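Hi there, hope your week has been kind to you so far. For a while now I've been wondering how a particular protein folds. I'm sending you its amino acid sequence along with the C-alpha cells. Could you read through the record and tell me how the C-alpha cells relate to the sequence? Take your time with it, there's no hurry, and the full record follows here.
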Amino acid sequence: MIISFDFTNLPSYMNDVPEVIRAFSPYLILDSSDISAKMIIEESDGNIKVEILSEKLGDFKVDKVIPFELNSLEYKRLAKREAKKLLYIFCNKITGIDLPYGSLTGVRPTKLYYDLIGSSSNIKSLFTNEFSVENSRAELIENVVNSQKGIYSTKSGEVDIFVNIPICPTRCKYCSFISTEYSRVKKLVPLYVDCVKKEILDIKQYVEKNNLKVRSIYFGGGTPTSLSSEQLRELCSLFDYNVEFTVEAGRPDSITLEKLQALKDSGVTRISINPQTFKDDTLVLLGRAHNTEQLYKAYELARKFPFDINMDLIAGLPNETFDDFCDTLHKTVALSPENVTVHTLSLKRGSTLKTEGSEKTMDGSIKKMVDYSIDFLTKSGYVPYYMYRQKNMADGLENVGWSKPGKQCIYNIDYMEETTTVLSAGAGAMSKIVYHDNGRIERNCNPKGFEEYLRRKGAL
C-alpha cells in the first residue's frame, strides 16, 4: 500500500517519527502524492494531544498527560513516544501487520528498559502493552539486561579504547562500512599504522593525565588482522592495562600462527573468527575469499592460544534456506566458541546487495531462523548479553550477542548501552564522551576516508 502522509505539523524534535511507517516497508510505502493522512500535534505544559486524520483510513487520537515542562528533554522524550505509539497503531490497523518491536524504532531497546526501571514492577509488560512489542522480544530485552548485571556500569572516570583498522582482504556484498580492500591501500598501510600509533599514544597520555580507568580495548574494522604480524604487534603492544582486549580477526583467510602469537604476546584476550555462513556457495556470492575448510583450520589454530572466541553469523543471506541457517548455527555451536553473535541481514545504503536491487524480506522467513537461534542457543547454554537494531533489517528484527555465562564482552555492553566514554583512534573512528551528570553524550569523529584521514594527520 502506498501512503502519503503530512508531517508538516510535527515539531523538529520529532523528525524521526516517520521511521515507524518506514519500518512497515514494503507493506507501506511513503509517497509524496495526494495526502491520505495527516498527523496533528498540540502541545502545552504537562500535556500532549496527537491526532492522525484520514478520510479514507479513519481517525486516531491520543490525549496524554506528561508531567514535565514543555520543551524539557523529559517532555520531548515522552511526547515523541506517544506520537510513535499512535502512528504504529494506525499502521498496524491499516495493514494488519504486527512488527516484533512494535512502535520502537531506536537502535537500543535495552536503553529504554533501563530508562523505565523504577516506573513499574513489570517492565516487560510495559513493552508489550505500551509499545506493542511482541512477548518473545520483550523477554529477550529483559534477558539481555539481566545478563549485564555485574558488568553494566555508569561510573565516572571509566573509559574504553577503540582502534579502527578499516581494511579487509575483500569487500563483502552486505557491507556499507568505510573499509577498503588491502590491495588498494597496501602502500599506504605503513603510514596508517604510524598515524594510529601516534593517536594511541595521545589517548594513553590523556588517560594518564586525567587519572582514568580503562575497562576494555577493542580493535575493530574492517579486519585488523589484514595487517602483518609485525604491524599488529607494533600497535597492540602499546597497551599495558591488563584488561579485556579484543581484536577482530573476522576473516579466516587473514589468520596466521605468527599473527595469533603477536596478539597473545601483546595481551589480547579475545578475538573473532566469523563464518557468517558455512555454505561455500554463499561465501562466493558474498565476495568472501575463504571457504569453510579454511574457517575450521583458522579456528583450530586459534584454539592453541588462550583467547575467548566470538563467531558472527548472519540470518537472511541471499539464497539461504531455513535449513541452511540451522546448519550454520549447529556447526558453530559444535565448535563451542565463548561468544556467538547472530545478525539479521540489514540492506544498508551503499552495500552492493542494496545497489544490485535486493529488497528487505518481511515474509516471516528470516524471523523463523532468528527465533530458532534464540531457542537453540538458550538450550545450548548461551545467554543473550547485548543487542541492537538497524534500519532495513529483515522482518524488523535485531542483532544479538550471545555468550557462555561469565564470558560477556565488556566493550560490547559499554558501547551499546552508551554508559562509558569511548576514546577512539583511526579513520572513521568515533570518540564518545559520556557526561553522567546530565546524561549528555558528545561525539567526535575522525575523517572517514582512508586517504583523507592520512591527509588530515599530515602523512600525505
